[in-house]
Design goal:
Belongs to the shaker potassium channel beta subunit family. The protein is an alpha/beta fold. The chain has a single domain, classed as Alpha-Beta Barrel (TIM Barrel). The protein is 35% helix and 15% strand. A 7-stranded parallel β-sheet has the order 3-4-5-6-7-8-9, covered by helices on one side. Strand 7, helix 5 and strand 8 form a beta-alpha-beta unit. Helix 1 crosses helix 2 and helix 4 packs across helix 5.
Length: 226
C-alpha cells in the first residue's frame, strides 16, 4: 500500500480508504464490520471514513465498537467523519457553530473516540456565513476534537472564500475536499479545482469512483451495445 500526505499537511493516508456510507448499519453489523476492517488493515489501509448521517448515526457506532473490539492502536488509524445532517430539528443540521459543536461531540460519542483526524463540512450551508463555519471548525480543532478539517461537495468559490476568511483571521483553512470523482463526473476535480491545488494545497479524498456501481457494468442486465 502506498501512503500519501493529505494535501500539504503532514498527515499520511493510505492510497485507498474505506468508507462506511452504504454498508455499516444498512448491510453490516459489528461482526461483519470487524471482518471487513481487518481485511482492510491486512492490506495496508489506515484511512476510514464516516458521517453523522450514515445510517442515522449507526455507522459511527458500528465502526467505533469494531475498532475497540479489534484492539487497534488509535495512532495507527486515520478516522474521518462529516457534519451537516444530524437530525430533524431546526438546529440539528447545517454548519452553524451550534450544530458543528454539538454534532462533533455526538459523533465522537458514537465513535467512542476522543478525536477524529479529519472532520468535514458534509455540504455547504447557504444559511450560515462561511466565517461562522470557519471559526467553528477552528474551535473544534482547538478543543482537540479533530486534528484537521475539510469540505465535501463545496464549490471552488466556496473553498476559496473559506481560505480567505482563514487567512484574514489567522485561522486554519480546510486541507481537503471530498468530491465525487469518476469517469462520469470529472469537471470539478480536473478543471474547477485546479487553482485550489496550487493556491492552497488542497488534497482530495474522492467518493463513488465507480459511480455507485454503474461503471462495473452490473446494471447492464447482460445487454451490450456497440
Amino acid at each position: 500500500m502506498e501512503y500519501r500526505n493529505l494535501g500539504r499537511s503532514g498527515l499520511k493516508v493510505s492510497q485507498l480508504s474505506y468508507g462506511a456510507w452504504v454498508s455499516f448499519g444498512n448491510q453490516l453489523d459489528v461482526k461483519e464490520a470487524k471482518s471487513l476492517l481487518q481485511c482492510c488493515r491486512d492490506h495496508g489501509v489506515n484511512f476510514f471514513d464516516n458521517a453523522e448521517v450514515y445510517a442515522n448515526g449507526r455507522a459511527e457506532e458500528i465502526m467505533g465498537q469494531a475498532f475497540r473490539e479489534l484492539g487497534w492502536k488509535r495512532s495507527d488509524l486515520v478516522v474521518s467523519t462529516k457534519i451537516f445532517w444530524g437530525g430533524s430539528g431546526p438546529n440539528d443540521k447545517g454548519l452553524s457553530r451550534k450544530h458543528i459543536v454539538e454534532g462533533t461531540k455526538a459523533s465522537l460519542k458514537r465513535l467512542e473516540m476522543e478525536y477524529v483526524d479529519v472532520i468535514y463540512c458534509h455540504r455547504s450551508d447557504s444559511s450560515t456565513p462561511i466565517e461562522e463555519t470557519v471559526r467553528a471548525m477552528n474551535y473544534v480543532i482547538e478543543q482537540g476534537w479533530a486534528l484537521y478539517w475539510g469540505t465535501s461537495e463545496w464549490s471552488a468559490q466556496q473553498i476559496t472564500e473559506a481560505w480567505g476568511v482563514a487567512q484574514r483571521l489567522d485561522l486554519v483553512g480546510p486541507i481537503v475536499e471530498q468530491p465525487e470523482y469518476n469517469l462520469l463526473s470529472r469537471h470539478k476535480v480536473e478543471s474547477e479545482f485546479l487553482p485550489l491545488y496550487s493556491n492552497y494545497g488542497i488534497g482530495l479524498t474522492t467518493w463513488s469512483p465507480l459511480a455507485s456501481g454503474v461503471l462495473t457494468g452490473k446494471y447492464n442486465s447482460g445487454k451490450h451495445t456497440t
